[in-house]
Design goal:
This protein has 210 residues and is of the alpha/beta class. It is 31% helix and 19% strand. The protein has a seven-stranded mixed beta sheet with strand order 2-1-3-4-6-5-7. It binds zinc ion.
Length: 210
């Protein structure tokens, strides 16, 4: 995990080198010399989802509920080839709301969200309220919010809290459950008062309402 500062510094280096056509978003190392989370060819092989129905195009129209940032994330083509730069930026986009550290998100929860998004016409905007949480931030949340689990899968980059623009949360929850049932594992949480849905790709299949 890297700090926001080192990430931004690295982005600045990448921007300075942007005239080189081979670099694209080619940041590899943070200012402190530590490697950024990076997908090498071995990881990309591991990233092939097993479920054939998940091979719809990987395109997410994202907005951060915390910072307001927007990101058209084209993380995979319909043939199953992942885009390492977009996945890398997605990790940063899904950083902890509290201290801006980030991790490598579990691709399975990203694929679940993508499949859910494809349920709706026109690729509606998805607002991410919470993705990765550092253990410190999760501890703080457990003190003030009884709905936050001590061993939350958000700390492993395996959970997302989100809403879909123009779609009632109840309906999003139903689609999330359908996607989860298709995948066969993972949790779905329905939070009607806060208007968001939680999905995760860890543990056993479960559904809850809070
Ligand atoms: Zn959650």
């Amino acid at each position: 995990m890297l700090s926001r500062r080192s990430f931004l510094k690295t982005l600045a280096i990448a921007a300075a080198a942007a005239s080189s056509p081979t670099l694209a978003l080619g940041f590899e190392y943070g200012a402190d010399g530590a490697p950024l989370p990076r997908y090498d060819s071995k990881d990309l092989l591991d990233l092939k989802p097993a479920q054939q129905p998940l091979f719809v195009e990987g395109l997410l129209n994202l907005r951060s509920g915390s910072t307001g940032e927007r990101f058209q994330c084209h993380f995979r083509d319909p043939q199953g080839n992942y885009n390492a730069e977009h996945l890398q930026y997605l990790n940063w986009f899904m950083r902890c709301n509290y201290d801006h550290q980030y991790t490598r998100m579990d691709i399975r929860v990203v694929e679940m969200l993508n499949y859910l998004a494809k349920w709706y016409p026109g690729n509606p905007e998805i607002t991410i309220n919470s993705a990765y949480r550092t253990p410190q931030y999760n501890r703080i949340l457990t003190r003030t919010n009884e709905n936050v689990a001590k061993n939350s899968l958000h700390m492993l980059g395996q959970a997302l809290d989100f809403s879909v623009q123009g779609v009632p949360t109840r309906s999003v929850c139903q689609v999330a459950q359908a996607v989860r049932n298709m995948v066969g594992t993972g949790g779905v949480g329905y939070y009607p008062r806060s208007n968001f849905v939680h999905i995760d790709c860890g543990g056993r299949a479960a559904t809850w309402v809070r």
